[in-house]
Specification:
mainly alpha, 2 domains, 2 helices, 0% strand, elongated
Length: 74
């Protein structure tokens, strides 16, 4: 029983250390993307005509994927 609890403790430690790095990477990428789109929009507002439909399409595809494969989220 103790070897199981040690393994669980090690696994939990790995997860606890991995989550902040993944969140930090996600935040940095998101901020960078918003900055790029912001600069492009300042230069030419027509960029929004491309970015907004693409964002909607990406979100829609994720919803469709999750509806068709609910077990892949586990």
């Amino acid at each position: 029983m103790s070897s199981v609890s040690v393994q669980v403790s090690v696994d939990q430690s790995v997860v606890d250390l991995d989550i902040p790095f993944r969140l930090g990477g996600f935040a940095a990428t998101t901020i960078q993307l918003i900055g790029i789109v912001g600069v492009m929009t300042e230069v030419t507002w027509q960029v929004l005509l491309l970015v907004i439909p693409m964002a909607i399409a990406c979100l829609w595809m994720q919803v469709i994927r999750d509806i068709h494969n609910p077990a892949s989220n586990l």
